[in-house]
Write a structure and sequence with these properties.
By secondary structure, the chain is an all-alpha fold. The chain has helices at residues 13-16, 23-43, 46-72, 80-97, 103-122, 131-150, 178-201, 203-213, 215-220, 225-252, 262-275, 280-307, 314-335, 340-353; strands spanning 163-164, 169-170, 173-174, 254-255. The protein has a two-stranded antiparallel ribbon. Strands 2-3 form a two-stranded antiparallel sheet. β2 and β3 (173-174) form a beta hairpin. α3 (46-72) crosses α8 and α3 packs antiparallel against α10 (225-252). The longest helix is centred in the middle third of the chain and has 28 residues, at 225-252. It is globular.
Length: 358
């Protein structure tokens, strides 16, 4: 009964088109952000910050980037991890070779560098699409990792290509604790997620969705295909580049080219598919599902097996974990192919009408 729109009148077009038109949604988002910024640092442990919350936010940001390209513009990509690698190594080199450059400027420049590389590998999208475009972006995955390995200058002459991220200093304050890194990552992710949500509602976002639904019809009504597709590749790669910089500076601290492999690209793609294609919320839900479910299964399967007297070894539990993980993925895709975000949307629609039938 609390989720009702009665008495909430829209007196202008701007009020009707706002991101959260229902007052309860605005209150819920405000409380969620207040809890994330103020409540979580008071109660969460260092393990939660270092191993769960920071990677969750970073992968959610990378999933938003891929969702812009695949979900909103309909261009399939398998090179997300490669663009993250470009962002990580670009931020490292900007900090190393430009004296006194602010770290946030390095993150922005790293995103722009990844955007330029993304546009370069997005050029085949003007001629091919679907599975063939996925193969073209797959080439970016292998080529970028090869470049980072074979050109030692990019890793400051490291023989293996491993880089160690510099310390984060902003206005004289050092972000060297898990809590401070979490707050930095959270602030960046919130700003960029809000920007992505507004961008999807703008004329550029509507052009992306028109190309996604039918590119020939979009071209007939005057949407420039080349500009629209390359813009999607640029914005998507920018988000992935910033995520890669945060991945190196705020999460691992030391990265190597092989760490940005094809497996990472597939994990981010699964986050988009499971969370919901074409939604910003789905990127967060998918990242939470992919990251938290294995941890939950790992902490519950072995104690359950011991409680039932089953002679399970750690290897057996690991195999069962993979089987359950895959089965749950198939279950969610069968129950709701549009992802967890669609399930949440259906729940909200039912709450708005309860207890009356639809």
């Amino acid at each position: 009964m609390l989720y009702r729109e009665a008495g909430q009148f829209k007196a202008s077009f701007a009020e009707d088109m706002q991101i959260f038109p229902i007052r309860q949604d605005r209150i819920a988002i405000g409380l969620l952000l207040a809890f994330a910024f103020l409540g979580v640092p008071l109660f969460a442990s260092e393990y939660w910050f270092s191993a769960i919350l920071i990677p969750f936010l970073i992968f959610a940001l990378a999933a938003i980037g891929l969702n812009i390209l695949t979900g909103y513009c309909g261009q399939l990509s398998l090179g997300t991890a490669a663009f993250m690698a470009v962002g990580a190594y670009a931020a490292y080199n900007f900090q190393l070779r430009v004296e006194g450059i602010p770290i946030l400027v390095s993150f922005v420049l790293a995103g722009l560098t990844a955007a330029a590389v993304g546009v370069l590998f997005g050029l085949p999208s003007l001629r091919i699409k679907g599975f063939y475009l996925a193969v073209a972006t797959l080439a970016a995955q292998f080529f970028i990792v090869w470049v980072l390995t074979k050109f030692p200058w990019l890793s400051n002459n490291s023989s293996s290509g491993v880089i160690s991220a510099q310390k984060i200093q902003i206005l004289g304050f050092g972000f060297d604790t898990p809590v401070s890194k979490y707050l930095l990552v959270l602030g960046i992710v919130v700003v960029m997620a809000l920007a992505a949500k507004n961008l999807a509602r703008s004329g550029t976002g509507r052009a992306w969705m028109a190309v996604r639904d039918m590119d020939v019809a979009a071209q007939v009504i005057g949407i420039p295909l080349m500009q629209t597709k390359l813009t999607a590749f640029a914005v998507s790669s920018f988000y992935c580049g910033v995520a890669g910089a945060l991945y190196a500076f705020c999460y691992l601290g030391s990265v190597e080219p092989d760490g940005f492999n094809l497996d990472l690209s597939f994990r981010i793609l699964f986050m988009v598919i499971i969370g919901g294609v074409g939604t910003v919320l789905g990127s967060f839900l998918g990242a939470a599902f992919i990251l938290l479910l294995p941890i939950f299964l790992d902490n519950t399967l072995l104690p359950t097996a011991h409680a039932l007297g089953l002679p399970f070894s750690n290897a057996t539990v690991s195999h069962i974990q993979f089987m359950l993980f895959g089965a749950l993925i198939m279950f969610f895709l069968i129950v709701e192919p549009h992802g967890l975000a669609r399930l949440w949307q259906i729940t909200k629609e039912k709450l708005r009408l309860w207890p009356f039938p639809h």
